[in-house]
Amino acid sequence: MSELTPHEDDSARMRASDADRDAVAHSLREALAEGRLDPDEHADRLDAVYRAKTLGELVPLTRDLPTTGSTPTPVPADFRSPRPIYGAGRIVDQAPTSNSALVLMGGADRSGNWVVPGAFTAAAMMGGIELDLREARFTRRETTIWICTLMGGVGIIVPDDIQVRVHGLPIMGGFGIEGNTPSVVEPDAPIVHIRGIAVMGGVGVEYRARKHQDDEEDE
């Protein structure tokens, strides 16, 4: 089994720069566009890119992808690095990707990089809905999620950089918040209002770390 020479070992331990990470992120985007990576593989590798601290951690992420030479592919001037967004950066001028989630004796979920409208409706009868806002964007600074559940449940997962205000009416049911509520957020961070009614059902709001935050804590 071959071993790294001292020179190679030193290179692998060198701290990665933002430009190094952006170059790898660009290569991964090209691989996704060409069908060499599926969306889940691309997302996993992209998370690893922005957790990487050294050049050695970046190498395996593109080792099984074609290369045009020994030097990294230059990053186009208009390339926008898909770094994790926070606070006010979540407010975008884009069309919503979903306006509602309606279930009858079934289940539905919204997650990933979805764009939430100013008013979103979630209705569940004898079923369940999960709304994951950790990577979501918002069309307005203040968003209202209207909920109606009958013998069902709605779970809402939120990150620590947005504000959540619960105004729901429980009837033989409940509205609750779990997790560590952030004590400080950016002044212009999104505000999500949870309104509606739960009849013999439940609505739970849970603060949960984002994937890259979980991975950092495990290191």
Topology:
Blueprint: H1 6-13, H2 18-33, H3 39-51, H4 55-58, E1 100-104, E2 107-110, E3 115-116, E4 119-125, E5 128-132, E6 137-138, E7 142-150, E8 153-158, E9 163-166, E10 169-171, E11 174-178, E12 191-199, E13 202-207, H5 211-218
Parallel strand pairs: 1-4, 2-5, 3-6, 4-7, 5-8, 7-12, 8-13, 9-12, 10-12, 11-13
Helix pairs in contact: 2-3, 3-5
Rough shape? elongated
Number of strands: 13
Unreliably modeled segments: 1-8
> Count of helices?
5
Main sheet specs: 6 strands, parallel
Strand fraction equals 25-35%
Helix-and-strand structural type: alpha/beta
String of helices and strands = HHHHEEEEEEEEEEEEEH
What is the mean pLDDT?
81
Q: Oligomeric form of this entry?
A: single chain
Q: How much helicity do the residues have?
A: 10-25%
Q: What gyration radius follows from the Cα positions, in whole Å? A: 21 Å
For the termini, the CA-CA separation is: 27 Å
Total separate domains: 2
Plain-language structure description:
By secondary structure, the protein is an alpha/beta fold. The protein is 22% helix and 31% strand. It has helices spanning 6-13, 18-33, 39-51, 55-58, 211-218, and strands at 100-104, 107-110, 115-116, 119-125, 128-132, 137-138, 142-150, 153-158, 163-166, 169-171, 174-178, 191-199, 202-207. The strands form 3 sheets. Strands 1, 4, 7, 9, 10 and 12 form a 6-stranded parallel β-sheet that branches. Strands 2-5-8-13-11 form a 5-stranded parallel β-sheet, with no helix packed on it. The chain is elongated, with a radius of gyration of 21 Å.
